[in-house]
Amino acid sequence: GKGPATLSYRIDANTGLTRTGGIFVGQVPFTITQMYLNHPPRPQSASPDSEDGPTGEFTLVYEDPEGYQDLKIARFNVNTSDGLAGGCALELNPANGTLRLAGDNGTAWSPWTPFSNAVSLKNSQCGVLSVRSDRSMDTADEQTLILDLIFRSTFAGSRNLYMSASDASDAESGWQYMGAWTVVNEAPSAV
After folding, report:
1. pTM recorded for the entire structure
2. Are 161 and 175 in contact (CB under 8 A)?
3. Which residue positions in the chain have pLDDT lower than 70?
4. Cis ω for the linkage preceding 48 (within 30 of 0)
5. Which residues neighbour 187 within 8 Å (Cβ) at sequence distance 6 or greater?
6. Integer Cα distance of 144 and 121 in angstroms
7. C-beta of residue 46 within 8 angstroms of C-beta of residue 163
8. 82 — alpha (psi -120 to 50), left (phi > 0) or beta?
9. Could you write out the three-class secondary structure of 125-139?
10. I need a surface site. Which of 37, 92, 157, 180 has the fewest CB within 10 A?
11. pLDDT at 187
12. How do beta strands 98-101 and 19-25 pair?
């Protein structure tokens, strides 16, 4: 027939990449494209979120709505601002169990190092004592990393805790303030 008509169709939720399908109304083809919307990962928590000391064991939880396997890089920064220069900034790749530490200038990075060799990473502000992934604490969308740091006495003072993350599609959370840490001037001479 001729004249106005209503056409209804249903598309299931898209959990993968962009997909395209088509329908015919009469002999006229219509193409329907369903876009895939990637939800970026985000920091969930850093604990403790308000402490002091020359060392700290930080439990960092990151969430990725696409599943914890989609989390590409988890970042953690202890500094007066979210800038990397003059701080203790790390990038962690939980999928392959490696991390790296930003140099003093915030632009140079150490080589990617296995979690098991993390104790070799140091800059003028901090050193890594250990790092591990703890899947027993996670949901399907969360990744928990436990990071032990030692701070140099020259880094003493009030610092902020920042986290950020990126996923396999390079979607970024941006830096998020997660708490505070006061570095006290009692660091052992092991660093």
Report:
1. 0.79
2. no
3. 1, 9, 11-18, 35-36, 137-138, 186-191
4. yes
5. 54, 55, 150, 151, 152, 153
6. 20
7. yes
8. alpha
9. CEEEEEEEECHHHCC
10. 37
11. 43
12. unpaired
